[in-house]
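Severity: low
Component: inverse-folding endpoint
Summary: output formatting inconsistent between runs
Steps to reproduce: submit the following structure tokens with default settings.
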């Protein structure tokens, strides 16, 4: 059989900056069947899918080599005996014995790539109900129980303070605002603590503090006790999100961003179940029912913490030389945090702006409020993991931000057109807008997962993710008032402004990502130079 000419770039050309780093693998025995297999993949699934499968196969294999078999460069070349050319010489010998790592990688991986690609092709991608590893399942179970409790509070927490604790609505709003701003700084500090002293214990402690503070709601019968317990609960929640980040990075496998997307889908399921229980509480409406809801919320947090006992501890990574609060001095990362915070206002469109718009500006039936929430939740649960799968680099994350901004703009325009038209037309426009908005939400969330993890140094994951959470925290505190002022008080022109804000933020994100990548590369180069100097 005559070997057909196959370009080496089919397998190893991606990302090679020097032509000398590319290797012609066409004479190798495995190349012809690999090329035929690739043609079959393209015929069955299309060229884009085949390219993604090949890319994933390379990434899996290289990660496996890095983790288990990498030795000094000379040792790699010395052990290259299996892949041979027709002459009987190894590929390394064919290259004149030059010790090039790309050559060594190419010759070692050339037989494994077709097999891995075939494995990826064996079944169409289906989101898993359970993660692969035990630690991931523990984290997912803990998150599931936690979000059931959160669903209880998110749905009926404000009503508890106004209906059962009999606090004025103005005082409740003021107290929640104070708690939101206080919790912003805690995420950075506790994230740094998790980096230095172990994330599992710190995260479990935040859950216990949140449980105690939540149980204290039943004693909050006046303004200042209410402020005290709600600040403690909100601060512990923000701290827990930052403290959990090193655990996600450590146990999330090769792509912790995809595991983070899985946890978000689990979060939506848990919150939906909690909302069902909260609906019963609101329907009954008694003080006892509300107090049972609060106690149930606290118990969920305790169970969530208890599940972490079976999670292996994570040894903190050693500190590197440099300032202690490095995340606050990483200006490109701070810019991305700001842009993500502006984009995060979109989460309040579905929960604040659309319900008020349906009631006050459209003829659509009021039950559509529940319909829009359910539609968004189902889409996120079904497609968040899939949406995150192809956003596998900071550059892809920046592009996803841009797509999300355009989707939010289109959704805002559709929502604005739903006022003053017949009920059936308004309902149709609103459901369509929610679908488009939720697609943008999938892209936005996946982009945030990617850039926040990929651009954070491993030894400071908690601190960096604590900083990144500042944007979402500010959106949580300021977003509802901004949307009410623009979209409800001002009306239709306000939707245009909000949509344009999202679109412009999305257009700016790829530029910020490129700046952050350049900054990260410069920092890594500086660290390598410093390390070599210290060894010398």
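Observed output (run 2 of 3):
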């Amino acid at each position: 059989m005559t070997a057909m000419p196959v370009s080496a770039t089919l397998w190893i050309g991606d990302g090679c900056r020097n032509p000398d780093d590319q290797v012609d693998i066409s004479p190798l025995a495995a190349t012809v069947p690999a090329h035929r297999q690739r043609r079959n993949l393209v015929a069955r699934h299309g060229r884009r899918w085949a390219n993604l499968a090949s890319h994933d196969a390379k990434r899996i294999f290289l990660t496996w080599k890095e983790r288990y078999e990498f030795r000094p460069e000379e040792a790699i070349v010395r052990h290259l005996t299996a892949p041979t050319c027709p002459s009987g010489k190894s590929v390394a010998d064919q290259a004149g014995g030059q010790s090039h790592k790309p050559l060594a990688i190419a010759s070692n991986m050339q037989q494994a790539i077709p097999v891995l690609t075939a494995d990826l092709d064996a079944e169409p991608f289906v989101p898993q109900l359970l993660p692969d590893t035990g630690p991931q399942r523990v984290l997912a179970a803990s998150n599931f129980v936690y979000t059931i409790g959160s669903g209880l509070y998110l749905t009926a927490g404000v009503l508890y303070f106004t209906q059962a604790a009999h606090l004025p609505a103005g005082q409740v709003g003021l107290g929640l605002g104070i708690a939101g701003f206080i919790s912003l700084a805690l995420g950075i500090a506790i994230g740094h603590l998790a980096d230095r002293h172990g994330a599992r214990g710190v995260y479990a402690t935040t859950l216990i503090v949140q449980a105690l503070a939540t149980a204290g709601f039943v004693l909050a019968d006046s303004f200042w006790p209410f402020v005290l317990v709600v600040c403690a609960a909100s601060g512990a929640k923000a701290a827990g999100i930052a403290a959990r980040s090193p655990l996600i990075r450590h146990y999330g496998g090769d792509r912790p961003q995809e595991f983070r997307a899985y946890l978000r889908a689990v979060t939506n399921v848990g919150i939906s179940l909690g909302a069902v229980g909260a609906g019963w509480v609101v329907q009954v409406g008694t003080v006892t029912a509300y107090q049972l809801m609060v106690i149930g919320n606290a118990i969920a947090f305790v169970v969530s913490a208890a599940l972490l006992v079976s999670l292996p501890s994570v040894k903190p990574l050693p500190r590197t030389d440099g300032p202690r609060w490095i995340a606050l001095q990483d200006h490109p990362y701070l810019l991305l945090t700001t842009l993500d915070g502006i984009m995060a206002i979109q989460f309040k469109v579905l929960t604040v702006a659309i319900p008020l718009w349906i009631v006050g500006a459209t003829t659509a039936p009021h039950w559509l409020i529940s319909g829009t929430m359910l539609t968004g939740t189902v889409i996120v649960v079904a497609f968040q993991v899939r949406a995150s799968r192809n956003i596998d680099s900071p550059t892809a994350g920046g592009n996803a931000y841009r797509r999300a901004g355009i989707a939010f703009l289109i959704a805002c325009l559709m929502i604005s057109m739903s006022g003053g038209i017949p009920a059936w037309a308004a309902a149709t426009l609103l459901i369509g807008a929610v679908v488009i908005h939720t697609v943008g939400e999938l892209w936005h969330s996946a982009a945030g997962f990617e850039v926040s993890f990929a651009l954070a140094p491993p030894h400071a994951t908690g601190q960096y993710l604590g900083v990144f959470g500042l944007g979402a925290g500010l959106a949580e505190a300021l977003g509802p008032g901004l949307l009410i002022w623009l979209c409800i008080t001002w009306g239709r022109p306000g939707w245009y402004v909000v949509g344009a804000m999202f679109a412009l933020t999305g257009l700016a994100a790829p530029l910020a990502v490129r700046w952050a990548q350049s900054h990260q590369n410069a920092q890594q180069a500086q660290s390598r130079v410093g390390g070599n100097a210290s060894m010398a």
